[in-house]
Design brief:
The complex is a heterodimer of chains A (about 290) and B (about 525).
Chain A lengths: L4 H32 L16 H8 L1 H33 L4 H12 L6 H11 L5 H8 L16 H7 L8 H12 L2 H9 L4 H30 L2 H6 L11 H11 L3 H29 L1
Helix pairs in contact in A: 1-13, 2-13, 3-8, 3-10, 8-10, 10-13, 12-13
Chain B lengths: L1 H38 L11 E8 L4 H14 L3 E8 L2 H13 L8 E3 H8 L4 H6 L28 H10 L12 E9 H7 L7 H13 L6 E3 L4 H12 L17 H4 L22 H11 L4 H14 L11 H9 L5 E5 L3 H10 L8 E4 L18 E4 L3 E3 L5 H14 L2 H13 L17 H8 L11 H4 L9 H12 L5 H23 L14
Helix pairs in contact in B: 2-16, 3-4, 9-12, 19-20
Classes of the chains: A mainly alpha (about 290), B alpha/beta (about 525).
């Protein structure tokens, strides 16, 4: 039976409102940012077309370039922790045979997700406080010599930011991977039992290959989240001490709302946008090849 | 049972009678109140129309008091809703100024912290803020009646000298703010630690340096707990050098900005070391200062001397003091980690209440001492160090076209700047544990004796002028600030010398100045009027 043109059109009609909103709130903003990046748009002044000037300035901005180094460390750590720890937790949960206990543990992993991110950050900020938190624990253990002003020390600030959220399980990524594990068909396990596979064999040969699409999603999401967000850094060190923890998105924000240079900030934003797209494509391509 | 019912009905009847009598009294009071409202009911706006005015403030400072003032004001003028919009911190406040003024100014807040507004929008230039029409000139309002002060003029509650400070601070020809309070900066010190360690209060800069070393030798890692506010100490040192050439930076007869009525003290001025207040009525020329900066840069011999002297004390500050969290540095002092704290009067109330809340065995006696003068000043600097005692809460009115609305905003502003309004703001602020910034400059406002005594310790002999523009401290773009902070940190821990620091600061300073010149449209010839970049 052939579909009528009306039936063919119907799904597109349902999608239209979403696309209209996307066009207004996302694509227009992106387009406008790209246009603004070629102007000298600044607070309180009329904008003029300046060509590639803002891009040249961004590539000559030593701090903007340096901030990518910090970003690289933060992003590599974020992607690793977003995959490894939730995967580990999901696997451990999988092998708990007692359903009730498994459910309790699962709930315990999920409940912290309900706490707003800023509260988590503030708790960690307290833990890093030089007079309380970790330093108090070190003092109790008579290890005062190891105490630091964690977020205010050039040597420890970046690492302290990376470690915020430890043990990195209470996140959406855990739920994604856990769901992925539950989607694996029983017949594979039955075959594994027949073949006399160990638990490690199950993880290596059944779980990991079947979880690849889910891991890809987690990698992509964590990559984008890590590159585009700056709330964590802004709320903890604001890029300091000096520029030890400055990242491109934070620098862009400061140029836009600190100096009011919207043209320059837009160019930085476009560069960051391109970097995110390239890295996302690269990561997906790499994982595809591994498949 | 019947008897009980009778008793209950008697009690009820009695309570109704009492309530009636009390409400009668209330009505009488209301009548009294409405009389005072009636006195101010001859208002300059259409009272049959509803409107909303927005006061945007930074969290904690006077917040509770301002909310109370808004509540009380709305009782007098129910047709005007006053919204107190509280912003969490300085950075967020500046961002808010940028975003709200990049849209329709008519929709922006009505009363704002003027110093933050100019900092965010015009590189701290009040003249540019007036030129761009961001803020209202409050000079004409001074001669208007304040209906909340028995019909006296608005100016009647201020000392002329404080009005002069407000005028000079905002460019010399227009007044962007009215004085509300004064703030000072001083060294807080823990008397108990000083007594325990047998260390005397320093009387000279050299003694201060010596006791810092003694404290460090005794195991106090950071003898002076300090944050960004410590730049005022740097400013005080800079003052000992720059004030000798102060005339270079003043508006002069023949300048386009010259106004005989407000700037006559500028003429033939030369700093008199025997009269430390001799320059209090002077008006700076932004353009002359800019011309000097452009010609000399920041890496001058004088700045090297200033920073070298500052570094002698800054090396006893905490690491990365320039980006330190204020609460953190105060806590370090309160916990006895640092025997001294370099802070402003605006945190004296907090320190006082925090210490009172500590367990008795952890409480300690504290007081303040002023910036100590040099015993033997480095070459190029004068010996006597002046402190800082300037206007604190700088509230400006945003310029709007809607006349009816503006009249309401002005009326609420007058309410806050009346003796009873200001007293209410102070009292409510203190009751709620928010911070007052310093003693009030509005005649008739009084403070609790203990707090007043602490605040008196912030009043210096003379007040230094603002020299950050010339010593380059924080005079870089926001984007370059992290690099600047890094330089200051390296300098403070003696990784680089003052000269090396200033050499690396030079390009950042130049970039900032070039942008400021462009924005203000300066041709660097003070004799010609300039137009800000459109």
């Amino acid at each position: 039976m052939k579909k009528t043109w009306k039936a063919k059109l119907l799904p597109y009609l349902f999608l239209t409102p979403t696309f209209i909103f996307l066009a207004i709130f996302s694509y227009y903003a992106i387009g406008n940012a790209i246009y603004t990046s070629f102007t000298d748009s600044a607070f309180g002044q009329t904008a003029h077309w300046v060509g590639l000037e803002n891009y040249i300035a961004a590539f000559h901005d030593e701090m903007f370039l340096t901030s990518f180094r910090n970003q690289l460390i933060i992003t590599v750590a974020a992607v690793f922790t977003s995959v490894f720890f939730p995967l580990l937790a999901a696997e451990l949960l999988f092998f708990i045979k007692h359903k009730r206990i498994a459910n309790i543990i699962k709930t315990a992993f999920v409940i912290p997700m309900l706490v707003p991110q800023i509260v988590v950050i503030l708790i960690w900020k307290f833990l890093y406080n030089p007079n309380f938190g970790f330093n108090s624990i070190l003092q109790l253990l008579h290890m005062e010599n190891l105490s630091h002003n964690w977020l205010n020390d050039q040597g420890t600030a970046l690492l302290s930011i990376v470690l915020i959220g430890f043990p990195f399980i209470s996140s959406m990524y855990f739920l994604i991977i856990h769901t992925g594990l539950n989607m694996i068909g029983e017949e594979l396990y039955e075959a594994a039992i027949v073949d006399g596979a160990t638990q490690w064999d199950v993880v290596r040969n059944i779980h990991v290959p079947n979880l690849t699409p889910y891991i890809k999603i987690v990698v992509t999401l964590s990559l984008i989240q890590s590159l585009s967000g700056f709330g964590l850094v802004a709320a903890t060190t604001n890029g300091g001490p000096g520029f030890a923890t400055t990242i491109p998105a934070l620098q862009m924000y400061k140029v836009a709302f600190g100096d009011g240079k919207f043209g320059r900030a837009s160019a930085m934003g476009v560069i960051l946008f391109v970097v995110i797209i390239i890295l996302t494509l690269l990561s997906r391509k790499t994982m595809k090849e591994e498949d | 049972m019947k008897r009980y019912k009778k008793v209950i009905s008697l009690v009820l009847a009695g309570s109704m009678l009492l309530t009636g009598m009390l409400s009668g009294c209330g009505k009488e009071e209301k009548k009294e109140e409405s009389k005072s409202t009636a006195a101010s009911s001859d208002v300059a706006w259409d009272s049959s129309k509803k409107d909303e005015i927005i006061l945007t403030v930074i969290n904690n400072y006077y917040t509770a008091g301002q909310k109370k003032a808004a509540e009380e004001y709305m009782k007098l003028h129910p047709e005007t809703k006053v919204v107190v919009d509280v912003v969490s911190d300085n950075d967020s406040y500046m961002t808010k100024m940028k975003t709200s003024f990049s849209g329709n100014q008519e929709e922006a807040s009505d009363i704002v912290h003027g110093n933050f507004l100019v900092n965010a929008l015009t590189g701290s230039s009040w003249n540019l803020a007036f030129e761009k029409g961001y803020v209202m000139d409050l000079t004409p309002m001074l001669d208007e009646e304040n209906p909340y002060n028995a019909g006296k003029l608005v100016r009647d509650v201020f000392e002329e000298s404080d009005l002069a400070i407000a005028l000079n601070k905002t460019g010399g020809s227009k007044m962007g703010i009215l004085p509300f309070d004064k703030i000072g900066v001083a060294f807080f010190y823990n008397k108990d630690i000083f007594d325990k360690e047998g260390i005397e209060i320093p009387e000279t800069f050299e003694e201060l340096e010596k006791i810092c070393k003694e404290f460090r030798d005794k195991g106090y890692k950071y003898p002076v707990s300090a944050g960004l506010e410590s730049s005022w100490f740097l400013n005080a040192i800079a003052d000992t050098g720059y004030r000798t050439m102060e005339e270079t930076f003043l508006v002069q007869p023949g300048d386009a900005a010259w106004d005989e009525s407000t700037m006559k003290d500028n003429e033939n001025f030369k700093f008199d070391e025997t009269n430390l207040a001799c320059d209090k009525n002077l008006v700076n020329s932004d353009e002359r200062i800019m011309a000097y900066k452009k010609e000399n840069g920041v890496n001058t011999e004088l700045n090297q001397t200033i920073y070298t002297a500052f570094g002698k004390i800054a090396k006893y500050f905490p690491d990365n003091w320039v980006q330190a969290d204020t609460n953190q540095i105060i806590t370090d002092f309160e916990m006895g980690n640092s025997p001294m704290l370099l802070q402003g009067s605006f945190n004296a109330g907090k320190v006082l209440s925090d210490i009172n809340m500590l367990p008795e065995d952890q409480q300690f006696e504290w007081a303040t001492f002023q910036f100590p003068s040099f015993e033997k000043a480095p070459e190029g600097l004068q010996s006597t160090m002046r402190g800082l005692y300037v206007l604190g809460n700088e509230m400006a009115i945003v310029q709007k076209e809607d006349k009816d609305h503006t009249e309401r905003v002005k009326d609420f502003y007058k309410y806050m700047y009346s003796p009873s309004g200001a007293q209410m703001i102070y009292e409510e602020t203190l009751t709620n544990g928010n911070y007052i910034q310093g003693p009030s400059v509005i005649a008739g406002v009084t403070l609790d004796e203990a707090l007043q005594e602490k605040l008196d310790g912030f009043v210096p002999e003379g007040t230094s002028r603002d020299w950050d523009n010339l010593d380059g401290f924080t005079r870089v773009t926001e984007a370059n600030k992290p690099k600047f902070y890094d330089l200051i940190n390296q300098f403070s821990v003696e990784k680089i010398t003052a000269e090396e620091m200033l050499e690396q600061l030079q390009p950042l300073y130049d970039e900032y100045n070039e942008e400021a010149i462009k924005a203000a449209g300066y041709d660097l010839d003070p004799a010609t009027a300039d137009n800000a970049k459109e």
